[in-house]
TrEMBL record:
Leader sequence residues: 1-19
Domain Metallo-beta-lactamase: 70-154
UniProt xrefs under PROSITE patterns: PROKAR_LIPOPROTEIN
EC number: 3.5.2.6
Protein's name according to its UniProt entry: Metallo-beta-lactamase class B
Keywords, comma-separated and alphabetical: Hydrolase, Signal
GO molecular function terms noted in the UniProt entry: beta-lactamase activity
Catalytic class of the enzyme: hydrolase
Species name: Anaerosolibacter carboniphilus
InterPro entries in the record: Metallo-B-lactamas, RibonucZ/Hydroxyglut_hydro
């Protein structure tokens, strides 16, 4: 029960941060405006970026799920060794668009991806990451679930409860137990 309360607290904090985010300022000279899709329009490859702070950004993509346009958020953390992606967009087309946007906006490449669980809204762009030789990390449970769900398998290099350092940033990995999925972790 203690783990459930901890998971709920983490989710509440995460949703609070997302609600407080500020959208990318798009003006006529902005590189974000030069992305392939207008902000707010629906296209299967549409991805938008929202700034949380200078080195932390949210990426949002959309998918038609049970007849409803459904958003999915992931995170970008800018480090001294490149960008760390936490969860992919829904599909490989959106992942390609996100790679293009990160290069245009930050002039940096995604070097590492962390997958939090093996549902399409978190791992759907994995083939694009692998094709671009980006390290894709997960827990062994997520790697098993990915294979079972028909996705490419991320590298099962993460333990359930530990910290990894990439560049100048530390990433705490926490497995609270089964919740949204059998393999869900928080970062």
């Amino acid at each position: 029960m203690k783990n459930v309360y901890l998971l709920l607290l983490i989710m509440l904090i995460t949703f609070g941060l997302i609600a407080c985010q500020s959208n990318v300022d798009v003006n006529s000279s902005s590189k974000v405006e030069k992305s392939s899709y207008e902000s707010g329009s629906y296209d299967k490859n549409y991805v938008e970026l929202s700034k949380i702070k200078d080195n932390i950004w949210i990426h949002t993509s959309y998918e038609n799920y049970n007849g409803i346009r459904t958003p999915s958020n992931g995170m970008l953390v800018l480090t001294s060794e490149g960008i760390v992606l936490i969860d992919t967009p829904w599909n490989n087309g959106q992942m390609k668009e996100l790679l293009k946007l990160t290069q245009e906006v930050f002039n940096k490449e995604i070097t590492t991806a962390i997958i939090t669980h093996a549902h399409a809204d978190r791992i759907g762009g994995i083939d694009t990451l692998i094709d671009n030789e980006i390290d894709v990390l997960s827990t062994s449970q997520t790697a098993k679930e990915a294979e079972k769900n028909g996705f490419a398998t991320p590298e099962p290099k993460l333990d359930s409860n530990h910290t990894i350092t990439i560049g100048n940033e530390n990433f705490e990995i926490f497995y609270p137990g089964e919740g949204h999925s059998v393999d869900n972790i928080t970062v």
